[in-house]
Amino acid sequence: MTAKKSELSYEEARDQLVEIVRKLEAGSVPLSESMTLWERGEELAKICQTWLDGAKAKIDAARPTAGVPEE
Predict the structure, then answer these.
(1) Which of these, 44, 37, 38, 35, lies nearest to 3 by C-alpha position?
(2) Are 20 and 41 in contact (CB under 8 A)?
């Protein structure tokens, strides 16, 4: 977790999130660490969603507008 939030690629954020979920599901971390992991997981999920929203916007922008015939 050395990279800044804005510097993480989608893949990096997703991979870190998967690792956090694995640790939390294992149930072997103390409550205080679980809370820290949960908070980091929330941040990573937001990063992933931002990347996905950006990708969707690019796809939507590339599609022809509905109802307008292409020239």
Answers:
(1) 44
(2) yes
